[in-house]
Design a protein that fits this description.
single chain; 356 residues; alpha/beta; Rossmann fold; Helicase, Ruva Protein, domain 3; two-stranded antiparallel ribbon; elongated
């Protein structure tokens, strides 16, 4: 099939390395992995920044796997998923009878990670009252279980992650500055998917292989219109959103062809928005977003119509119905008034439309 990427769902190139779970070869991702290689052999604390769904946990795991502690425990804690009143016990442990409901002794995550690495995801969600105790563990390498008087020594390499702006939280007095400076020894910023779009085809093929095998399907064609649509989308949920949509597309696939999961996702969104009367706004916003991603071009293999999986005439019809085409005509009119002796071309108007 000429307009499709051919793909085998059980294809495996056998290339295995320490970053085998991190998919992509963009310059942005290569920079992050170089930083990982640089800091991994040390015992320094690492603070991983990045939007939700960018793969911060995979970066933390890669740091551990490339470190001297690779054969020791790698313990993970999502600080946002544990109730505030239980978080201290979860991290430090407690003795029997330390509080109501403490019917047995509990070993905390720091003890579990002794000699290994502890990954604290969403570190910005740790309550202010618990932060001094965390700071002490990091500085002194010691702590006491709740309800216990014995000081315990610990040897743990800490890797933390957050999608929050901790400096802004410090300004609002929601996060301790001394803890921030102790955590921020070696910061690693994971780029959002929209800043590493060249990795999207590789990620799509990887997820297709994983989910096709899981559900017992064989996908050997990814239409270019589907891939173009995925490349153009802004991915607010990053790699996690891409993974979920590809899984849905694999389930809905027929005859070995991967459908455009964005079409299904947008359709579901429109159903949900119908009661609110916002379908028109949603469709207009999607078209505007795609036009900007396409550099203002409507037609052509890289134009908005191809990216949306529509015919050029269909997209133009939608633009007229939604008032978007009138906006483009206004831009052309403004350009013509700048120099009436030389009317603008459609391409010039579309380029100006992108900036408008």
């Amino acid at each position: 099939m000429e307009n499709a990427d051919r793909f085998s769902s059980i294809e495996n190139d056998g290339a295995k390395d320490k970053f085998e779970e991190i998919i992509g070869s963009s310059a942005a991702l290569k920079f992050v992995l170089a930083e990982v290689q640089r800091v991994a052999p040390t015992d320094s604390t690492v603070l991983v920044f990045g939007e939700t769904g960018t793969g911060k946990e995979r970066i933390a795991a890669a740091i551990h796997k490339a470190s001297m502690r690779r054969d020791r425990p790698f313990i993970k804690v999502n600080c946002a998923a544990i109730p505030i009143n239980l978080l201290e016990s979860e991290l430090l442990g407690h003795e029997k009878g330390a509080f109501t409901g403490a019917i047995a002794q509990k070993v905390g995550r720091f003890e579990m990670a002794d000699t290994g690495s502890l990954f604290l995801d969403e570190i910005g969600d740790i309550p202010l009252a618990l932060q001094p105790k965390l700071l002490r563990v990091l500085q002194e390498k010691e702590f006491e279980r709740l309800g216990g008087g014995r000081t315990r020594q610990i040897n743990v390499r800490l890797i933390a992650a957050t999608h929050r702006d901790l400096t802004e939280m410090i300004r609002r007095k929601e996060f301790r500055s001394d803890l921030y400076y102790r955590l921020n020894v070696f910061p690693v910023l994971v780029p959002p998917l929209r800043e590493r779009r060249e990795d999207i085809p590789e990620l799509v093929r990887h997820f297709v292989g994983v989910f096709a095998q899981r559900v017992g399907k064989h996908i050997d064609q990814i239409p270019k219109t589907t891939m173009n649509g995925l490349m153009a989308y802004h991915w607010p949920g990053n790699v996690r959103e891409l993974q979920n949509l590809v899984e849905r597309a694999v389930i809905l696939s027929d005859e070995g062809v991967l459908p455009n999961p964005l079409s299904t996702a947008q359709g579901n969104t429109m159903v949900k928005l119908a009661a609110q009367g916002t379908i028109r706004d949603h469709e207009a916003a999607l078209i505007l977003q795609t036009l900007r991603a396409a550099g203002g071009m409507i037609g052509g293999p890289q134009g908005a119509a191809a990216r949306l999986g529509l015919k050029r005439t269909t997209l133009l019809s939608k633009m007229k119905r939604l008032g978007i085409y009138r906006r483009l005509e206004r831009v052309m009119d403004q350009l013509s008034k700048r120099d009436e002796s030389e009317p603008p071309t459609k391409g010039e108007a579309e380029a100006e439309f992108q900036e408008a």
